[in-house]
Amino acid sequence: MPSDSILLVMDMINDLVHPDGTGAKTYAVKCRERNVYENTVRAIERARKAGVMVGFVRVGFSPDYRECPPNSPVFSKAQENGIFKLGTWGTEVHSVFAPRESDADIVKHRVSPFYGTALAPLLSACGIRRLILTGVSTNGVVSAAVREGHDRDFACVILEDCCAGASDDEHAFALAGLRRFATVTTAGEVEL
Known about the structure:
By secondary structure, this protein is an alpha/beta fold. It has seven helices and six strands; from the N terminus they run E-H-H-H-E-H-E-H-E-H-E-H-E. Strand 2, helix 4 (78-81) and strand 3 (104-108) form a beta-alpha-beta unit. The chain is globular, with a radius of gyration of 15 Å.
């Protein structure tokens, strides 16, 4: 019987988490310090073994940045810095996570993985009722996914050892605020 859960690996793209990416001095450092790469690989392996769907959420914009909001404090410098451009190495999922062709690929143009994406129709079509959430940043995409997922009546689970913020404080503060809306656990302890 198919699982009613999906493991979402969010924004683990080269621009943000690869040692040669733009986020090398922030997210990549925190991912290494917190063993996020290894923990996320373990979560993916466990999910696949349990028959849980795996989906990768990637932020990105068309080459002309037509979807990029010019007044956003988060995205307004993307075009100027040449990051988050779809079709480039930067928006590919870091190869350590070994995405498969059968995995869901959700492209987003904002912080939320739900806003203007194919995520909601995918979850509905597949009978998904529980979101297992990982990625960077804890206070960005993970927080947005939890809050909106909660309001869409999904059970939300955060694998805290598969998440990172730009700083330890960002990560901790985000988790403190999200515990009201989600179960917080780890890659090794999550029930699949």
